Amino acid sequence: MISVIIPAINEEKTIGSVVTIAKANPRVTEVIVVDDKSFDNTVSEAKLAGATVITSTKIGKGASMRDGLLVSSQEIVVYLDADLGKLNADAINILTEPLVNEQADFVKARFSREAGRVTELVARPLLSLLFPDLSQFAQPLGGIIAGRRTFLQKVSFEDDYGVDIALLIDMHLLGARIIEVEIGEIVHNMKPWHQLTRMSKEVSRAILARAMKLSRTSLDDLETISVIRDYMDDAIRDTIRQLRKMAVFDMDNTLLQGRFIELAAKSFGFHKDLIDIVTRNQDSYLITKHIAKLLKDKNIADLLSVADAIPLVDDAAHVTKVLKERGYVVGIITDSYDCIANHIKIKIGADFVMANELEFSQSIVTGEVKVPSYFCRSDTSRCNHNFCKSNALLHATVAHNIDLRSVVAVGDSENDICMVRIAGIGVSLCSSNEALKSIADYRIDEPRLAQLLDFAN
Predict the structure, then answer these.
(1) Are 388 and 419 spatial neighbours (Cβ–Cβ below 8 Å)?
(2) Is-contact 343 363, C-beta < 8 A?
(3) Is the pLDDT of residue 275 over 90?
(4) For the chain, what is the radius of gyration of the CA atoms?
(5) Is 397 helix (H, G, I), strand (E, B) or coil?
(6) Which of 96, 152, 188, 248 has the lowest CB atom count within 10 Å?
(7) How many C-beta neighbours within 10 Å does residue 414 have?
(8) What is d(CA 61, CA 6) in angstroms, rounded to the nearest whole number?
(9) 457 CB contacts (<8 Å, ≥6 apart)?
(10) Structural contact between residues 65 and 81, judged by C-beta atoms closer than 8 angstroms
(11) Confidence of residue 244 (pLDDT cuts 50, 70, 90)
């Protein structure tokens, strides 16, 4: 009788409970999770809970919603968010009752939560100006909805943050009977701060595009819209300035235009040994231990001379300075050695380093290395690796009392994937790793960091 569709990306912690609630409803005949190429265990958790899982044809919530509609079979369709940490067990009945009783064609959920900035500063003012009949809705940008297939098949699913407001307007323009129902309190992840400006632009674009098709806008309206968006941008910037923020960088091939251990291998003549260690071992801990032995009997001056021979990304110091002026704590998280990372930290003016600790005696490398516990997997880890930079990042955010959503993480390789994925803003820099590029929020394809300043406000 009812199809439930759940667009999802990297929601392994909540997707199972959302699917379970949907499956428990006797009216629900199918639960379809449309996975947006998640990098975590979202797919396995959804399948374990009993959902049918398909992969979205295109990155973006709107595409996932459209794909789910195409493969679903029932006349009544419910869309749920995948990140719901708390949802009323009766929510699906509340959403669909007006449809079952022929009282509505499209139903939006109203729930107990303070309206977000984009709703208050962009959506509501624009709806009041251009679509006043819709300004009554408490959560016009909410994604928890239900509708008749016959109506949903006639609307356009935007591929960005404008999808939910666009559906509301399109349903209104189709003459659908629209009501809003109270489903109680929900708990879900708030949008990261860096996405608010983009969200406001995409929401306003969706509203304006539909108004212009109806010739509902004048030059005065456009001027008002511009003022609204400028106000939103200013409000976001003011909020961001008050946040505690962090920027973390990988070192090799990110801050440095090369890898320390590779140049050391060539300089000290152990390149073949290095290749043997990497190819013969799968365990990153063992690789780290074995490579350290290759540096035995080298002194600190030998190592720093190798580091100095690798050029820095030429604007690293400047970008670090600007980030710190904007209130960022700047750090280096690397699986290289602390003596090298601290040397680079001083060069660029960073605040902290998290790295493997190479052991010295009388300034000579002993061949031993300590892997700090902050790299190790714990109960708070966000991945399944025993040793991972993402664990170090979590440790750093706790130590500096900074929300993970207020972190920018930059890396280039497979070892950076988890760190980049869990940060509020994940950036791939000159990466050849397709997995890293696919999960990063931004890609920089030249060895310069200046582009960071465009979105790290």
Answers:
(1) yes
(2) no
(3) yes
(4) 26
(5) helix
(6) 188
(7) 11
(8) 10
(9) 194, 236, 237, 240, 241, 326
(10) no
(11) confident
Per the CB < 8 A criterion, the answer to whether 331 and 247 are in contact is: yes
Beta-bridge partner residues of 431: none
Q: Which helix (H) or strand (E) holds 329?
A: strand 328-337
Count of CB atoms within 10 A of residue 132's CB? 9
Strands 245-249 and 407-411: parallel
State residue 104 phi and psi, 5-degree precision: -155, 165
Token output for 91: 């929510």
Query: Side chain identity at 311, as an amino acid letter?
Result: P
Residue 84 near residue 153 (C-beta atoms within 8 A): no
Residue 134's identity, in one-letter code, is L
Per residue in 223-240, pLDDT tens? Answer: 555 655 565 555 555 554
DSSP, collapsed to helix, strand or coil, labels residue 344 as helix
CB hemisphere CA count around 390 (13 angstroms): 22
The CATH number assigned to the domain with range 2-242 reads: 3.90.550.10
- Note the pLDDT of residue 201: 76
- Which of the listed ranges 35-49, 276-290, 343-357 does the model predict with the highest average pLDDT? 343-357
What's the pLDDT at 271? 94
Domain residue limits, the chain: 2-242, 245-455
Q: Which CATH class is domain 245-455?
A: alpha beta
For residues 352-376, b (16+ Cβ closer than 10 Å) or e, as one string? bbbbbebeeeeeebebebebeebbb
Identify whether the C-beta of residue 170 lies closer than 8 Å to the C-beta of residue 153: no
* 77-92 residue pLDDT tens: 999 999 887 888 889 9
Q: What is the mean pLDDT of residues 119-137?
A: 78
Q: Are 203 and 143 in contact (CB under 8 A)?
A: no
Q: Is the pLDDT of residue 243 over 90?
A: no
282: Cβ–Cβ under 8 A, 6 or more apart, which residues? none
**236-242 contacts, C-beta under 8 A, 24 or more apart:** 236/117, 236/193, 236/196, 236/197, 236/200, 236/457, 237/457, 239/117, 239/193, 239/196, 240/193, 240/194, 240/457, 241/326, 241/327, 241/457
- What's 123's DSSP letter? I
